[in-house]
Each structure stands twice: as structure tokens, then as C-alpha cells.
Design brief:
With 317 residues, the chain is of the alpha+beta class. It is 38% helix and 23% strand. The strands form 3 sheets. Strands 6-5-4-3-7 form a 5-stranded antiparallel β-sheet.
């Protein structure tokens, strides 16, 4: 029903914008199929008045014109429904230029570039380079994972999905049935937040660990979508961002730069190793496992034991 109404409104708007003279209700009814299907004149009149009010609420300027015979007609003059000329100064152009450079992969790259070209055609002076003012800034949102696009569409359309997911501690992927809520980029990695149907709980998935294709499933969501989806906060807690204590690790020289960025103290040990003190919070063991033989946990003992257990689980497959 919503699609039918949208189509009816579009047809009415096109009729009113495409005519050079006012059109009567009778002419509009004969021109639009949905109005021809109205059961009676009263039904048509009510439908037309609602549609006319809806178009005006959307911003279309519709004029009501009465001729010498007293007949009423309607039209939407093009000059009354044009947007004013778009003008951009150098700073506004630079901001739009930076925004257009953000998306470098996926289907949004072409849309961003095309939007900037249209704005330039609409009023950006030719002698203004939108990239020049802030050329040192190179914003990027990397999208290398094949799962990004199907998950983005699934989040938009509210469609459940199925995919194979490999945890950091597992050698083989497991199938996940998920109701996707939101995608967010954090520290150069994309994460999906959603409802895991098999586990009956909210989960966050790192896209680089999704293997194979993302498959869509029919049906509606079974869990309520929260007003605020805290992807970054959840991942930060896993990575130890909210830590209230420290861990001591050995790290190979010229390796583990994300760990070095988090370190509160670094000491060179020689022979290709450094000693780092890093914040210790929930999920740090899973993160350290990703660095494999480049990391050795010195203390605390429980963190070392957790990392060893995870490595043994991976080795066993």
C-alpha cells in the first residue's frame, strides 16, 4: 500500500509539473490510473485532496487557478518549484571535497564522487579546488571485506543473514544466524553489531573474520533493535580500552604496532625483543593471540594462562 501511494503521488506531481495550463480534477482523474480505479467520485475527491495536501507538505508549490467559467484547475509551475542556485565558498568546497574522498571502496565511492561533480556543476567556481585547501588531510574509510556490501544492504533493509564466522581462538569457522543492526569502523576494522539468534544475545562481529558469502534470509527480526548500538564501546572493552590495570609483555622489534600505540611504557631488551606495559582489560587475551609468536605474556599469570589456552585450542583445531 505504501508503494502504491508513493507511485500515485509521483504521478500526480509529474502531471502538475508537466502541464502548461491548469488541469481540472476530471483531467487529472483520467490521466492517473489509481484515480480511475477509485470506486466513486467521493472516493476520488477524498484521495485527491489527501494527495494534494501530502505533496504540499513535501514542499511542492501547487497553485489553484479559477477560470472565467468558474472551473478550478491545478498546476505546479516549474519556476516556483526550483531550488535556488547553489553557491559554495572555498571552505565549504574543501569540506565537501574531503567528504567525497572518504569512501574509497564499495558502492558508495561512485555516489560520493558523483555528488561532488553535481555540486561543482551547480555553482562551485572552476578556479576553486575542493582538495587544495586541506591537501594534507587524506581521510579514508577502508572497505576491503567482501562482506561489507551485503551486510550494509541487510542493515538497511532489516533482513536477517547467515554467514560463517571464525573466532580468534578457533581453527574452523562456525555458522552464525544474525539480525544485523549496524556497521561501524573502529581502528581501521569494520564491525557488525546485531542479534545472534542461536545464542539469543547481542553480538559484535569483525568483518575480516567472516568467511564465504553472506546469505540473506526471509522473515522479520525477532529481537527489538536498541535505540543506540554501542559498537565501538563493545569492541573497546574487548581490546582492553576500559582497563584499570596493566599487563607486561615481550614483543618482537618492528612488530605489533597496534600494541605499541597502546603501551604506557616501552623498554628495549635487545636481541630483537622489547618489553611493553599495556592496559589490561576484558578480551585482551583474544587480541594478543592474533599476534601469534611475536608476543609473549610475562604477567599477570592469569593473562598468560588465558593466552596459552587459546593458542592450544587453535593448535588442536
Amino acid at each position: 500500500m505504501a508503494i502504491a501511494k508513493a507511485e500515485r503521488l509521483m504521478n500526480l506531481a509529474l502531471c502538475l509539473l508537466g502541464t502548461r495550463r491548469p488541469l481540472s480534477k476530471r483531467e487529472l482523474r483520467e490521466s492517473i490510473e489509481a484515480y480511475l480505479e477509485a470506486g466513486s467520485d467521493d472516493s476520488f475527491n477524498r484521495m485527491f485532496e489527501r494527495d494534494k495536501d501530502d505533496l504540499r507538505e513535501l514542499g511542492l508549490v501547487i497553485e489553484t487557478v479559477e477560470n472565467l467559467d468558474g472551473d478550478v484547475g491545478y498546476l505546479a509551475r516549474r519556476d516556483s518549484n526550483r531550488l535556488p542556485p547553489i553557491t559554495l565558498d572555498a571552505e565549504e568546497a574543501a569540506a565537501l571535497g574531503l567528504a567525497a574522498k572518504v569512501w574509497q571502496q564499495a558502492r558508495l565511492a561512485g555516489a560520493a564522487s558523483g555528488a561532488l561533480q553535481k555540486l561543482r556543476a551547480a555553482g562551485l567556481p572552476e578556479d576553486v579546488d575542493p582538495y587544495e585547501a586541506h591537501g594534507a588531510l587524506e581521510p579514508r574509510i577502508p572497505v576491503h571485506e567482501a562482506a561489507f556490501e551485503p551486510l550494509m544492504l541487510a542493515c538497511r533493509d532489516r533482513r536477517p543473514v547467515v554467514f560463517d564466522y571464525r573466532k580468534a581462538t578457533a581453527a574452523r569457522p562456525e555458522q552464525r544466524n544474525v539480525e544485523p543492526w549496524a556497521l561501524e569502523c573502529w581502528r581501521g576494522h569494520w564491525y557488525l553489531a546485531g542479534w545472534d539468534r542461536d545464542r539469543g544475545a547481542e553480538r559484535v562481529f569483525r568483518l575480516s573474520r567472516i568467511t564465504g558469502k553472506v546469505r540473506s534470509r526471509s522473515g522479520r527480526f525477532t529481537a527489538e533493535i536498541p535505540d543506540v548500538v554501542t559498537v565501538r564501546e563493545t569492541v573497546a572493552s574487548w581490546a582492553g580500552e576500559n582497563a584499570d590495570r596493566s599487563a607486561l609483555i615481550r614483543l618482537r622489534t618492528d612488530a605489533g604496532y597496534p600494541l605499541r600505540a597502546k603501551a604506557t611504557a616501552v623498554r628495549e631488551l635487545g636481541e630483537g625483543w622489547d618489553e611493553l606495559e599495556i592496559p589490561y582489560g576484558h578480551g585482551l587475551d583474544a587480541w594478543l593471540v592474533e599476534f601469534g609468536p611475536d608476543v609473549v605474556v610475562l604477567e599477570p599469570a592469569e593473562l598468560r594462562a588465558d593466552v596459552v589456552d587459546r593458542l592450544r585450542a587453535v593448535a588442536k583445531g
